[in-house]
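Morning!

This is the sequence you dropped in the shared folder:
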Amino acid sequence: SPADLAYYGIGITISNVIRSSRQISLPFSVKLLSKGETDRREVRSLLKFISIFVIPMVIGGIVLAPDLFRIFGKVYMKNAWILPPLLIAAALTVYSSAFRGLLRGLEKADKNLDVGYRELLRSMLFITDSMDYLFTAMIIALSILTIPLIGGLGAALSRLAASLTLFSILAYMCRRHLPSRRIIIDLAKICAACMPMTAFLIFFKPISSITTLIDVGIGAAIYFAALYAIDSESRFLIKSFLRELSERMFAFM
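The structure's back. Tokens below.
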């Protein structure tokens, strides 16, 4: 229905904030392309850096889902339940993008100028690009099955299922480069830093669109303060990010 389409569109618009975090992995991919090799320490740093931004956005987005929908109009608040699966799908897409960049950067088939089409078709360059078609096909097929039954929620769950499938495939393909135990520890620290932010967002509910944006800013400040206090590696990553950001800003001025 038109109403379901509107709710889904609002959810996609909000989740695009998370999806835009895919650009975080771009410098890593460029470095990989120049070197053609990496180690688990670099991959861990990349995934941790992505998680520092993505995980609090997912948690905060879920807690504030009705309030975020209210920004587009109070009439949409009652259907904010469509947002959580879209936020999780967007987060999985960000990680999938990082995995794809890792596989492409390690591929050596394109380094040879005399490489044939057959070798390119077998390379990760072609395989990772073709996964976008699989992702789109899954969304379409699942949406056709679920939308007639549960409306807009079906479209959201279809996107989540397709994103989870793509994420699982790419994670399996990258398994040799993933420091699984250390990543779990990193995720635990990030989730711990999210707890005071979550408590603030739950107990200090915004009453308008403006206060929603204010709460988002305060929640982000609380999260980064907590993360800065409990994790020395995150302090280093955040400082490096701020230093790089300031250098780029001064370069454009």
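Headline: The chain has a mean pLDDT of 81.

More detail when I'm at my desk.
O.
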